Amino acid sequence: MSGAVIIGLCNQKGGASKTTTVASLAAVFSERGLKVLAVDNDPQGHLSLQFGVDALRDKIANTVSQVYLKEAEVRDTIIETGQGGVKLIPASIALATVEMNLPGMPANDLRLRLGLQPLREEYDVILLDSPPNLGKLASNVLAASDYFLVPVDGPWALQSVSTLNKVAKDNATFYNLDNKFLGLFLTMYDRTKIMQAVREEAEERWPDRVFKSTIRRSTTAREAAALSVPLPLYAADSAVAEDYQQLATEVAARSGIKIGGKGGR
């Protein structure tokens, strides 16, 4: 399939750096000349906030909720972020009500996939954030993604990888989809025995899916989030920003994203 490569960040554990990674990868890919769309799929709206967007405060009428509900054209939900050229489909707390109602809607696991389809030829990369659970919103992210990527910040987060793979495979089989497990990468990384053990277990269970890139533990990420600036733009010369640069290079190589040109697989 030509056009945008769609990558979903998933993990049912909170605090594993899904949102920070989506914002950071979006900023890095945009800096490298790609047309990037970030999509907030969490009712908490933390991805939107990282780009300085508060859907309620800013009285944004059309958010990702309207994509799920088919209440607006998808292009009418996209806003400029003013952050490195990245465009965003924001979310608000209203998305929680949408998720509760999704089971009663036709094609309830495919609403996001169908909604984003018209944008494939307009972007090089589309990055999807997801909530820290395996509910209907996360299921939609998995179904909409060409690849899903899992951040792991410790032993508990590692345990969800098998579950995510099962849900993705079940969706792929039932809906005849072709989404792939791109891999996992370690976040909050340090040289403790715990993180070394997590890496060893991950490499034993998924030998071809553990990224070489790691995101080290740093207060810089929290500072960037608090100031509503993606980390690579907030502290471009920091060690953790360099980690995200390396991760972006590895993600591009594994997914077929062509840096400096039209993305594709």
Could you explain how this protein is built, in words?
The model is unreliable at 261-265 (pLDDT under 50). This protein is of the alpha/beta class and 265 residues long. Helix 1 (18-31) crosses helix 11. 49% of the residues are buried. Helices cover 42% and strands 15% of the residues. The N and C termini lie close together (7 Å). The chain has an eight-stranded mixed beta sheet with strand order 3-4-2-5-1-6-7-8, sandwiched between helices. The protein has helices spanning 18-31, 46-50, 64-69, 94-101, 111-116, 136-144, 155-175, 193-205, 220-226, 231-234, 239-255, and strands at 5-9, 36-39, 79-80, 87-89, 125-128, 147-152, 180-189, 210-216. The protein has one domain: P-loop containing nucleotide triphosphate hydrolases (Rossmann fold, 3-Layer(aba) Sandwich).
